[in-house]
Each structure stands twice: as C-alpha cells, then as structure tokens.
C-alpha cells in the first residue's frame, strides 16, 4: 500500500535532481545544505533512483539499502525495522577472551548465500569460536568478489541474499551465542558502479591511496562525506544488530582534522553501545604499528578497541614455512626470537629497521597499559592467503604436524585469536583473488594487472589465476566433505581441543603482555611459552627434542602428537609437535 514518503539525497554537485519512483518522475527541492527532498506516494518496496542534471538515466541512492538488480540498477526501499528479531536474549559479549572466525559469504558454502551459511553455524558453535567476522557484504559490481570493491556501502549484496537475509543471519548467530563482526571499507570505493562522484565530492584532492582515490574526510565540503561514513558504521551496529566492525586499512584514511574520523567513530560507537545495552567493538587493520590507535581516548589515544597484528602472523608464518621474500625477510632472519618478540610485545617492528620498507617502522606497545586481547593474532587471514600468487593456504606448504604447532601457538597466545574459514580442518582448497566486473575493460585491466604484478616477482603469468574466470571463484569454495577425511579430521580435532582448553583454563586467555615469558632455541627450533602455571612447548624441528623447563612438568593437558616424556625439569617433545603442560 502506497503512502506519502519523503525521499532525500545529499547532492551538492548537480544543479538539478529529479526523483524517479516506479517509473514516475518528480522534481526535488534543494536546500541550502545541498540536500534535495521530495515527498511522493510510494509503496514499501518501491523502486526508485535519482536523475542528475540533464541526464535522464536514474542513478541508485548513495544510501540505498537494497539493489535487487545490482549496483547499476534502481534502488528499492527497505525497512530494517520490519524484521521480527528473535535475539532478545542476546546481550552481546566483549571481545576480550573471545575467538574470531573470518568468513567470506560467497565461498563459505556451495550456494554462497547468507541463508546457506546459517546451516553451517552449528559447526562453528561445536568448534568453539565466539565471533563470526564477515568479509565486506556491501554492494559491488557483479555476482562475486572479495567485497573490497564495494560502491554502495549501505546495501547488502543481492547475490548473498540482500538485507533481509543478512538480518536473518545475524539473528541466527545471536540465537546460537555467536557475535557478528562486519568488515567495512571506508578508505576507497570500487572502480565499477561508483556513481557517488556524480552526487557529492566524495574524493579528496590529496591523491590516491594504493586502491584508488582517497575519501574526502577533511577537505572542502567534507562534513557530509564524513557523516556518510559515520552513519554507515552506526547503521550496521544499530539496524542490523551487528556486534562489531572490522575497519579495513585505516592507515589509508587521510584525515587532517584535529579529531580524526576514527576517534569520532569510536566516540559515537561507545555512545551507541550504552544506548543499546551491549558491547560494540571496533577492530582496525593498520599498517602503522602505532599503539595510539587502540589506546583509550581518556589516555589520548584514538579509542579503537582492537587491531590486527600482522607482525605476529609474519613472525609465526615465516618461522614455520621458511619463507623469506618481501616483507617476510626480517621475520625469517629473526626466527623464533621474532615470534617471542611479538608474543610479548605484539609488534616486531616497534621502531626497528624494516628492510622491506627501507626505513624504521612502528613504535613499542606499553605492555603495562595495553592488554594482549586488543591485538588479533592469526596464522592465516584472507589477505595472507588471497594475495599470494595462487591463493595457496598454509596447509599446502606445512605438514599436518606443523599445522598443529602453528594452531597451538596462535590459540594459546595472549591475543584475540582469529581463524580463517576452513583453517580449522586444514582445508586443501585455495582461496584465490576473484572478481566479476561487468565492465569488460575493467575486467580485462584487473586480470592483466594481477598477472603482471606477480610476473615481476618471477611467476609465470600462466600460473596466476585469472580473477575474472568463474572457475577461480568456484575453486575457492570450501569443500565440506573434507571434515571426515584424514588428515583434516585430526587437524579439526586439534583446533576443537585447543579452543576447549581456552575455556577450561583462564591462564590461556590471560592478556597481560607484561607477564609473558618466552624461551626459545633457534638451533633446535623449540619454543616455550609461560602461561601462568602452564607451559606451552613447541618443537618445530623434524627431530625429537629435549627441552629444559624452569620447573618440573606435572601433567599433560594437551599434545598434538605423542605426549612428551618428562624427567625432572626436562621434557622430550616429538618432532613437529606441541603440548600444553601443567607445572
């Protein structure tokens, strides 16, 4: 049933804006603030768009909640309050002590939809994780994409099921005790279907970042652009009941204001958290290694609640695999001392020389003030797999034994652990870079650029998958039949037991970095991590190793292979294995 509806759009760029609703065109009135408004009769699911200037082609609403025909088509009205929520008992949960599971909707299941993902949530509950982190689901061009090429930040990608399916997914997670973290991108927009510059000065004049033009956060006419970002963050948390946001590459947010947009976002999210009566979390990805990002505002920080720790990943990955190219060089040279440094201080580059950057990088973490849970630790994530030439997981390189050692180091660390989908069973499927740009030129340029990038590093261009080839996307889907087959079943059992240990032994979730003690021997490739009265021992070598402890081991809580034999303060640990001991 139609009713009077006010349509509004901020569009200071065009001299004229008209509104098209269900085929009928209406004039809009411009206010002094650059907002255009018109009140017309419209149904609850009316299709609409805006005609800018003398162009008679309707463009989608920059704040569109639904794009049934893709990002080039008309917008459709969507009422987020129409969903009948079943998560009334959900009061949220803090990030501290939790475990995050990173998931890409399109490749998590064969169907690649949010509704299909619901059917796999019980697996995550049985696994023992606490949060599901979805890669970006905002509207992008085509049917499949990583999500970082989004152009309509307020819409949920229709091929995933659209916004109603998204609400069903969040509801289903909450009813199972799982929190939801949504990955969002505010540092750039995708190359195809981005009509925002026709409406507003969305880009700054300060030049591009690595992925495109920078968003106008502090230049002329940036107030409403900034509001566009902040309102989007609040929308996910308020209207979609999301529990947290992962903020992509915040080092690429160019903001010259006295109050950085991240600080402003943290302040508004904290206010919303009070109003909603549940914890709301902001997690940043940053290449700066600057602890001020996660320092509370009361202590003159930006107040973001947590951030990814790529240094921890690089240290563990390089030590396990032996890779030493590119940014892994410093970590491979440091060996286990680099793992120890990150376990006790989160950052490896804390003001030290970075050979990859050819400069000094980062600053130290004040471990007496910042707890380890503020840093996410992981052995794999979407970037560290998908940005490899062939998208190969660490399971393609490491033995099942070393996979288990890596899992033990991550899941007993003082950080907030994160797993990438399928990691828990050592999935054999790759996770490759895939796109489905409908513009032939953009698609061709993406494929050529991808192959050329890796050809510069010695790869045969024919070995690098074509991101526009549908098979690249299909190959990246998880194979759920692997769970009951070896070695996958054993790897899965290791992850389940480690996650259970975290719940059973508070010492394994202790986030006090200042209390961390780590011993290592690079020659024997052994590591000992003190977790209160527990000792985590890891033997990365292909030979049995005798490890000396600071006090006798009294029992074995967990072992990835045969239990270590102990005699006094000495324990003998099998090759490529790890264990958690009581002392």
Question: Topology of this structure?
Answer:
Layout: E1 3-10, E2 17-21, E3 24-27, E4 29-30, E5 35-42, E6 47-52, E7 75-76, E8 100-103, H1 105-108, H2 114-118, H3 121-127, E9 131-134, E10 138-139, E11 152-156, H4 162-175, E12 179-184, H5 196-199, E13 203-209, E14 212-215, H6 223-238, E15 244-247, H7 261-276, E16 281-284, E17 306-308, H8 310-321, H9 329-334, H10 336-345, E18 352-354, E19 359-361, E20 375-377, H11 382-386, H12 400-411, E21 416-420, H13 440-455, H14 470-475, H15 488-504, E22 517-521, E23 526-531, E24 534-539, E25 545-548, E26 555-559, E27 565-567, E28 570-573, E29 577-582
Parallel strand pairs: 8-9, 8-21, 9-12, 12-15, 15-16, 16-17, 17-20, 20-21
Antiparallel strand pairs: 1-5, 2-3, 2-6, 4-5, 6-7, 10-11, 13-14, 18-19, 22-23, 23-24, 24-29, 25-28, 26-29, 27-28
Helix pairs in contact: 6-7, 8-10, 12-15
Task: Offer a quick outline of the entry.
This protein is of the alpha/beta class and 583 residues long. 26% of the residues lie in helices and 22% in strands. The strands form eight sheets. An eight-stranded parallel beta barrel has the order 8-9-12-15-16-17-20-21, surrounded by four helices. It has a five-stranded antiparallel sheet with strand order 22-23-24-29-26.
